[in-house]
């Protein structure tokens, strides 16, 4: 028996066939190539048909991870990076081709913590949090083994965490925490500092300011560049405070750091832990483990598979 | 059929007989009078015996709210304000006298949101948060109808929320949010400002600085005292940020403000909502209602009753 896990991103789609024990038997990645609305839905349908209804297919369940909000009650999805997906009936569309095969959909952050729970660094955990730091920031939160959804499926929007007063208008598009400590935030903060420091002669001046990315900043950090050191130090403070808040509020067993930034920022996890330990509820912070993702870049696709697997056992 | 709800505080104990429909049939309040450890346990046992085993007693279940941590796995409790209750076997003690009558214990903050859900302002809600602001700060958090416990029963320690960097040593005993925005924080901040403002001639100079309480500050606010205005404005900012973080993380239906400070601070709820709206995930903040407690001073005892009631229906 096998299951399908689909990981839809903003620019590409990955589809994997997984065994019930979590072995990835095959994986195909396809660029979205600016597909919009129905075209993205059509691509998913086409792939599901290809893998599910070939002769002798052992597929028994389908799980989908998507970049946005998955609405449980309606089965519709909202994906800010896919045009026309404000309230797209993805579940209905897939069910129409899947027939009797069960289908589940959840957000990429929910799938990430489920993937870690199934095959990654949250195995055995019932209360764990996946902090995804990439272009943006979000969290997948597992409470007693169940994904925290909230009243309207948008729980875990931790990029909006308020961490430094007073309020500033620049937080409007993305929230305070994400403004400073996302991949985009790291680049932005670096550009701001460079603009002010006309005497700066470090490695980052090699790039046009608007071209600077978080990866350049991490590389400059390795060379002890003073601006990179300052930016990373500030991020460690914000990551530590945000994680401290999650610890005080949830009393979890594990925090897992993932997304494109963790990645290179994995080496800062001990510093983040030290910062969090200053702020958090002092007993809770001794009861939690800090870990990197056990499935770098693949937590969500494994999570989609685990969604599918849970759906078999439920029915 | 009736149930017993017990609300143990740091200085007094209340015991109520409630009908299954949530009517309070009787209530008795007893001062703890510096009772310690076993003596507090003994008082609870004595009252349970009195109400449960009188002739024709209709008591079918017992619920207890206690000020601290209730450990689900062991049935023991930790109460910082009761000497000798580091790991006190309260459940075992009560069960010994209760016999076949079911017994449940939970923390006062968990009971507060359960009480509001049963008979207060969270009726009909499955995702709601009770923010208790008194001497300290904590939260009772309901997720899909279930109390958030965390891996080791200390979830909801929101007084430790990190809201303003950099870290300061003065946050060590209680956490950043509680330092500024608890009842004790309001008094402390006022004292700090008065010490610095030697030219101050307002109403708060009537009191010796060490005697100033949050109640004095709220009274001075009514007279437009500049120091009180400054302190309350700062608290509104912290309350707004903390509530914004709960909204972004949990996407709840309702936030209920309780504890001794709400109370007089109820009139600031609209200002807190305006502050929270600046910081929080912008969709979530439109989906949540802000309310005062529907059971001022009695949310926890009703919640203890609801614990008891749930225990009947479970068994």
The fold-level CATH name of the largest domain in chain A is Nucleotidyltransferase, domain 5
Class by helix and strand content of chain A? alpha/beta
Q: If you compute it from the alpha carbons, what radius of gyration of chain A comes out, rounded to the nearest whole angstrom?
A: 20 Å
| Helix percent band of chain A | 25-40%
Residue share in β-strands of chain A: 15-25%
Largest sheet of chain A: 5 strands, mixed
- Count of runs of 4 or more consecutive helical residues of chain A: 9
Order of helices and strands of chain A: EEEHEEEHEHEEEHHHHEHEH
CATH superfamily of the largest domain in chain A: ATPase, nucleotide binding domain
Give the quaternary arrangement of the chains: homodimer
CATH-level-2 architecture of the largest domain in chain A = 2-Layer Sandwich
Largest interface: A-B, 52 and 52 residues
Tell me the strand order in the biggest sheet of chain A: 3-2-1-4-7
Low-confidence stretches of chain A: none
Question: What are the main properties of this structure?
Answer:
homodimer, about 325 residues, alpha/beta, Nucleotidyltransferase, domain 5, 2 domains, five-stranded mixed sheet, globular
How is the secondary structure organized here?
The structure is a homodimer of 315-residue chains.
Chain A: E1 2-8, E2 12-19, E3 24-31, H1 37-52, E4 59-66, E5 69-70, E6 77-78, H2 90-98, E7 103-107, H3 108-119, E8 128-133, E9 137-143, E10 146-147, H4 176-181, H5 183-196, H6 214-222, H7 226-250, E11 254-258, H8 269-279, E12 289-292, H9 299-314
Parallel strand pairs in A: 1-4, 4-7, 8-11, 11-12
Antiparallel strand pairs in A: 1-2, 2-3, 5-6, 8-9, 9-10
Helix pairs in contact in A: 1-2, 3-9, 5-6, 5-7, 6-7, 7-8
